[in-house]
């Protein structure tokens, strides 16, 4: 108890001192996280440590953000528009340490990752994140008995470039500022970032505090109403509703080994956890395109069935159109929906290229081998060649895709 009291006073002292000395919110958060680690090394519980640090950070942010031009003021409802940074994220951090971690101790790992990423954020550049949606979502409404209207129109067949990108072992490398990256999204933005999820989308949110804040705001969905199970949206069950989130800043790299084998992170001690997260020397500014494919988890033989093909093309075309509306000429992408959603990597590549041709957007494709691309590009060429020799509608193109991929 004596140690806890001393550390509490030290934590609050750092919060006050950082503000009084004019060191700013970023310095405050960095020092707060250092104290968080000190708590853990003294054997104080995750809950007590996290609560003390969170209270200090809330106190500091309440005062500091009002002096910071990068902050947002006032609450905003979920939907298109600003994301009220950092209030939703701070509310989630408080809930994690007061309610969630006592019930599920492994969530302390998520708390530590989120607070470290937040600590490394340059607040002078932060707080300008907004979320936008398609202005013509009705064009992509689908169901098992209703195809989107553009399926009856000719395939656009734009000339596009799909480049293979090596990246970080097939993962995104985020090397340049200002680019847009595809989020392999769940139906609810952020997926299980504050719970037990640790896929591609959750990793993005853990590395990008403003994206985590948008997820914490709630009410942002990447597919429309009609999904019977938001964790497993089935083909043609609900319509695409992609989201464009930005700008956000990547402040930390979370090593892929943290979740290998699956679930490893849940039992990770704090000292080991620190070896899997690396604060970046500078924040990288980027934009996020959140798209959710249909899930085939628990099904068999559905990878290239017509409903899967139709849903995937429509969903990708909607997302790519939203990116193009935001002046994106080259989208960074990868094998979306091929993890727990169990889609075929071949089908996903072919449909992404066809959707890119429909919209007119270039792709930089991560997690794609040169051998696979050299095998799959001829499939696309064959589908398009057959399309040109017959009925000129998107519907016919997708029937040919089904025939070529089944």
From TrEMBL:
<keyword id="KW-0472">Membrane</keyword>
<keyword id="KW-1133">Transmembrane helix</keyword>
<keyword id="KW-0812">Transmembrane</keyword>
<protein>
    <submittedName>
        <fullName>Mycobacterium numidiamassiliense ORFan</fullName>
    </submittedName>
</protein>
<feature type="transmembrane region" description="Helical">
    <location>
        <begin position="43"/>
        <end position="63"/>
    </location>
</feature>
């Amino acid at each position: 108890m004596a140690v806890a009291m001393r550390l509490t006073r030290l934590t609050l002292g750092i919060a006050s001192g950082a503000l009084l000395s004019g060191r700013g919110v970023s310095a405050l958060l960095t020092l707060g996280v250092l104290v968080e680690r000190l708590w853990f090394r003294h054997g104080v519980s995750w809950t007590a440590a996290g609560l003390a640090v969170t209270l200090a950070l809330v106190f500091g942010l309440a005062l500091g953000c009002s002096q910071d031009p990068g902050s947002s003021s006032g609450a905003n409802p979920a939907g298109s528009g600003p994301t009220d940074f950092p209030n939703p994220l701070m509310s989630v951090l408080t809930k994690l340490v007061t309610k969630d971690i006592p019930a599920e101790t492994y969530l302390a790992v998520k708390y530590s990752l989120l607070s470290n990423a937040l600590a490394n954020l340059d607040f002078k550049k932060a707080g300008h994140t907004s979320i936008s949606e398609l202005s013509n979502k009705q064009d992509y409404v689908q169901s098992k008995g209703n195809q989107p209207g553009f399926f009856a129109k000719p395939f656009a067949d734009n000339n596009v470039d799909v480049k293979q990108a090596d990246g970080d072992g097939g993962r995104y490398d985020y090397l340049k500022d200002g680019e847009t990256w595809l989020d392999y999204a769940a139906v609810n933005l952020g997926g299980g970032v504050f719970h037990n999820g640790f896929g591609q989308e959750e990793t993005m949110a853990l590395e990008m505090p403003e994206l985590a804040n948008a997820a914490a705001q709630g009410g942002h969905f990447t597919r429309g109403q009609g999904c019977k199970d938001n964790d497993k949206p089935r083909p043609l069950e609900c319509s695409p509703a992609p989201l464009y989130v930005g700008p956000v800043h990547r402040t930390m790299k979370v090593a892929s080994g943290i979740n290998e084998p699956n679930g490893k992170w849940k039992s990770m001690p704090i000292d080991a956890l620190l070896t899997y997260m690396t604060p970046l020397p500078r924040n990288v500014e980027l934009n996020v395109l959140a798209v959710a494919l249909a899930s085939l988890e628990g099904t068999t033989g559905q990878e290239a069935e017509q409903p899967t093909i139709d849903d995937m093309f429509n969903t990708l075309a909607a997302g790519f159109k939203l990116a193009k509306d935001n002046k994106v000429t080259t989208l960074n992408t990868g094998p979306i929906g091929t993890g727990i959603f169990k889609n075929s990597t071949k089908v996903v590549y072919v449909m992404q290229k066809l959707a890119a041709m429909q919209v007119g957007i270039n792709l930089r494709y991560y997690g794609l081998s040169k051998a696979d691309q050299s095998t799959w590009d001829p499939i696309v060429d064959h589908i398009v060649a057959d399309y040109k020799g017959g009925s000129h509608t998107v519907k016919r193109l997708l029937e040919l895709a089904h025939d070529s991929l089944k």
